[in-house]
Amino acid sequence: MSRVALVTGGTRGIGAAISIALKDAGYKVAATYAGNDEKAQAFKAANGIGVYKWDVSNYEACGEGIAKIVAELGPIEVLVNNAGITRDSMFHKMTPQQWHEVIDTNLTGLFNMTHQVWSGMRDGNFGRIINISSINGQKGQAGQANYSAAKAGDLGFTKALAQEGASKSITVNAICPGYIGTEMVLAVPEKVLNERIIPQIPVGRLGKPEEIARCVVFLASDDASFITGSTITANGGQFFV
Ligand code: CAA
Fold first, then answer.
1. 147 among known catalytic residues
2. CATH fold of 4-233, please?
């Protein structure tokens, strides 16, 4: 029987590529989104993947949404924590709201989601948690004190939880994408992108969402059972850990 995979932020950008790749690999996929109904419905119509709307920064909303998916598809065996936002600003101009929005979504969102599938995975003696962190959680990025802090936090979360999940055959891993050609990256001012960022990528281009999705499919597979607490970096050679 095919496994159930839940992808947060799974209707756009890297998340959409992940949802599609998991479906193509035989998973029953549910994709969440926070706001853009039009894009989500278009994604559902084009790909035949169920979409569910809630905000991952809201613990109760995560619980209700997950319960609905479990009732419709069955216990969640693969969770991809992909949903993320940016509120870029140099630190001297950053507001408490910009700080909290990013931490609440990109870091606390992982707690809110994972906490509510964890018991089911322990009971089923199988699970895959795949956290989409970022190159900027590894190296830091000017203009992203909030985002870099959250994404670095995601890596600590991954390593701690990997140790707890191991005895129940639950693996917990992270992927650190570099700059991928999505709306999030293309929102960076063109001058900054072309003059500061792309010249730092040795392969000379932005990554493709599908290049991250293939890493997710591998980490979700039975072939990856011995890999836990690890980080796959996929950044075109921009930064080595
Ligand atoms: N390093 C050091 N200093 C920098 C800098 C950098 N990378 N970028 C800008 N600065 C400096 C500028 O030189 C300037 O200095 P002075 O005031 O002394 O002249 C100062 O910071 C202000 O620069 P800006 O005029 O650009 O300021 P701004 O307020 O208009 O914009 C910003 C600031 C919004 C942070 C903008 O620079 C920006 O968007 N930078 C890109 C940040 C980035 O890489 N975001 C990644 C988004 S994609 C993503 O997050 C996905 C992922 O995981 C990779």
1. yes
2. Rossmann fold (3.40.50)
